[in-house]
Amino acid sequence: MKRVYNFSAGPAMIPEPVLQQAADEMLDWHGHGMNVMEMSHRSKEFMAIAAEAEADLRELMAIPLNYKVLFLQGGATGQFAGIPMNLTKPGDKADYAITGAWSKKAAKEAEKYLQVNVSIKTDAHTGVPGIADWDLSADAKYVHITPNETIHGVAYNDFLPPTGDIPLVGDVSSMILSQPIDVSKYGVLYAGAQKNIGPAGITVVIVRDDLLDNQRPDTPMVWDWPGKAEAGSMLNTPPTYSWYFAGLVFKWLKNQGGVETIYEINKAKAKKLYSVIDSSDFYANPVEPSFRSLMNIPFTVAKPELETKFNQEAAKAGLKNLEGHRAVGGMRASLYNAMPMEGVEALIKFMKEFESANI
Ligand SMILES: Cc1ncc(COP(=O)(O)O)c(C=O)c1O
Fold first, then answer.
1. pTM summary value
2. What is the torsional sign of CA 237, 220, 204, 11?
3. Are the C-beta atoms of residues 65 and 59 closer than 8 Å to each other?
4. Is residue 262 pLDDT above 90, yes or no?
5. What pLDDT was estimated at residue 314?
6. What residues are annotated to the active site?
7. Per-residue pLDDT tens over the stretch 53-86
8. Which residues line ligand 1 (CB under 6 A)?
9. What sign results for the dihedral spanned by CA atoms 126, 277, 8, 17?
């Protein structure tokens, strides 16, 4: 068996000990003679698995007690609609900051339900403008941001728009658990699982209690946050296996030392790769240094005709899925929590050799 370094933006690498544990538990979970995916979601065994995963996530993210944690389906894309349905009435207004492809999609979906005010819009998506350039509306029901733009590799880093009493809603799909997030600064956080949480299929929504009970009467049951919260996210059958798997990843992260520790490792990994890109005339990253993502690092080669060759030779060297998103081209290395430093070092070695051979 040979495992590769998988730089995919998602679904992405899962820590190997977690895959191994899931394999060990495949036929017989803890002496129960069945796999978790064969268990009723109402069984006491699964209820315990679900509760432990939530408790571990709360601990890892230091989620305050006045926030509910929901485990839903439909991905982050589902919440592009779920957010306006749960926080606004028809005719209401919300502010959307468009800093890349994902926030643009979120705003487009929201337009079906409410009046979208574009509070900021970047064209090249290479940074986040200072607050003086933002047009925040006094009557917005919420302000939506995407703190890490997965496709463009743009991150808010230390910047958050001051929204006062207007709740901030953050799509943290590609940065959840990679660095500390002050949950109390947000009204709602949401994330698809397939980057730092586990396999696709489960969506985490973290919502402050006072924002529940604003849902529209025609909100589908599966999107209705208060209903889901009331039922412990088990109003209908949840994605039980993904939930269990997320729980294994949370335990792994706790064993690594938690979010603070992984953040230091993530910073070190990203710094190494950016410094190789910046110190060469052959590779380039267009994002302003203070808004560079730790998780998704896009880069180009000086001669675009070499991109296919780069990707093919990298794949042969066991460095997979380095193609940039089809919307932007180039290359992109996603360095989620499960990507070890050795993977980044192997990529850097390959990049240097490729540069020497093709300059
Ligand atoms: C920032 C961000 N938001 C939303 C999505 C869409 O997530 P999903 O496929 O879970 O709907 C992605 C997927 O990559 C993403 O990176």
1. 0.98
2. positive
3. no
4. yes
5. 98
6. 102, 171, 195
7. 999 999 999 999 999 999 999 999 999 999 999 9
8. 10, 75-77, 102, 146, 150, 171, 173-174, 192
9. negative
